[in-house]
Design goal:
By secondary structure, this protein is an alpha/beta fold. It has two domains: about 5-130, 60s Ribosomal Protein L30, Chain: A, CATH 3.30.1330.30; about 140-290, Alpha/beta knot, CATH 3.40.1280.10. It has helices at about 10-20, 25, 50-60, 70-75, 95-100, 110-120, 140, 155-170, 185-195, 210-215, 235-240, 260-265, 280-290; strands spanning about 30, 60-65, 80-85, 105-110, 125-130, 145-150, 175, 200-205, 220-225, 230-235, 245-250, 265-270. A seven-stranded parallel sheet has the order 8-7-6-11-9-12-10. β6 (about 145-150), α8 and β7 (about 175) form a beta-alpha-beta unit.
Length: about 300
C-alpha cells in the first residue's frame, strides 16, 4: 500500500469537474477524501482484516455492503445506510439511491486513495457503511417456517455466503447460526451470497446446543448431517413426511459436534461413490436443501 502523501489524488480542477457533473443537489453532499488516514472514513478503514471486522462490526452496529447490487438488496430489505464510498465515475449509476437517502454523505476519491483506506481494490464500484438492523428473535423466525438450516460453527465467510445463497434459492425458510459461526453481514459473506443474507431470516443463537430444545419445542424434527453408523440417506429422508425439519450442518473439517448428534432425532448423509465420504459444506448444503425441500 502506498503511503498517504504519495497516493495519487484529485487536483482542484478535477474536483471542480466532479462537482459540476454531479449537479447542485448531489454536489453539496460529496465529501472528497485525500488521505488514507482521513478519520471521516473510519467505517471503511482496514476492511481486509477479516478477524477484526468480525469482532468489531456487530459490536459497533455496522456492516459494509459491497457493490451496487448488494447495496440495492440491502436497501430493499429496509436496512439504513450511514454513508456511501466510491470513485466519482460511479455517481451517476446510483442517483436514485442518493435521492432516496438525501441526508447520507457520499465519500469520493481516486481509486488509489480509496484503496489506501480499505486495504483492497474497489473493483465492484461502491461500498456503503450500513446500520445493522435489530436482531430477530428465535420464535419470530421459526413461526410459519417448515424448513430451517442450523449452521454449527461455520467459520469461513465464503462457505457461509454460499450456504445462504443456496438457502434462498432452494426453499429454506430461516437460518440459525451458532455463537461461534462467522458473521453473515461480513462483506465477503454478503458478496458470495449475492445479497441472500438480506432475503432469508436469520438469528444468532446464544445457548448452543441447548437452543435445539426450543427448535424441537416449535415442532421441528432435528436432522444432523453427518456420516455416522446409523445415518440414513438423504434421499430416503426426503421421501418421508416431516412437515417441519431443521437440518444441522457442522463446521468445516470436524463436522457436527457429538453433543448435537446426541440431541438430534436422526442423522442424514448424502450417498456417494466408494472412496469419497464428504463434500465441502457449502456444496453439501445445496444438495441437502434440494432433497429436503418441502413438497
Amino acid at each position: 500500500m502506498q503511503s498517504p502523501d504519495r497516493t495519487p489524488d484529485l487536483d482542484a480542477q478535477q474536483e471542480a469537474a466532479v462537482l459540476v457533473a454531479a449537479g447542485e443537489d448531489l454536489a453539496r453532499r460529496l465529501v472528497f477524501l485525500h488521505s488514507g488516514q482521513d478519520p471521516r472514513a473510519r467505517d471503511y478503514a482496514g476492511l481486509s482484516d477479516a478477524a477484526l471486522r468480525q469482532v468489531s462490526d456487530p459490536a459497533n452496529g455496522r456492516y459494509i455492503a459491497e457493490s451496487s447490487k448488494v447495496l440495492r438488496r440491502a436497501l430493499a430489505a429496509g436496512h439504513a445506510p450511514r454513508s456511501f464510498f466510491m470513485a466519482p465515475k460511479w455517481l451517476d449509476s446510483l442517483r436514485d439511491v442518493f435521492a432516496a437517502h438525501p441526508e447520507v454523505p457520499i465519500f469520493v476519491g481516486t481509486d488509489a486513495v480509496l484503496e489506501s483506506i480499505t486495504g483492497f481494490h474497489l473493483h465492484r464500484g461502491v461500498l456503503a457503511a450500513m446500520d445493522r438492523p435489530d436482531p430477530l428473535e428465535l420464535d419470530q423466525v421459526l413461526s410459519g417456517a417448515s424448513r430451517v438450516a442450523i449452521l454449527e460453527d461455520i467459520v469461513d465467510h465464503t462457505n457461509l455466503g454460499a450456504i445462504f445463497r443456496s438457502a434462498a434459492a432452494l426453499g429454506i425458510d430461516a437460518v440459525l447460526i451458532t455463537p461461534r459461526c462467522a458473521d453473515p453481514l461480513y462483506r465477503r459473506s454478503i458478496r458470495v451470497s449475492m445479497g441472500a443474507v438480506f432475503q432469508v431470516p436469520w438469528v444468532r443463537l446464544d445457548s448452543w446446543p441447548y437452543d435445539l430444545r426450543a427448535v424441537a419445542a416449535a415442532g421441528f424434527e432435528i436432522a444432523a448431517m453427518e456420516l455416522t453408523s446409523h445415518a440414513r440417506g438423504i434421499d430416503e429422508v426426503a421421501g418421508g413426511n416431516s412437515e417441519k425439519l431443521a437440518l444441522v450442518l457442522g463446521t468445516e473439517g470436524a463436522g457436527v459436534s457429538d453433543a448435537v448428534l446426541q440431541l438430534a432425532d436422526l442423522h442424514v448423509m448424502i450417498p456417494m461413490r466408494p472412496g469419497v465420504d464428504s463434500l465441502n459444506v457449502a456444496a453439501a448444503s445445496a444438495v441437502a436443501f434440494w432433497e429436503l425441500r418441502a413438497r
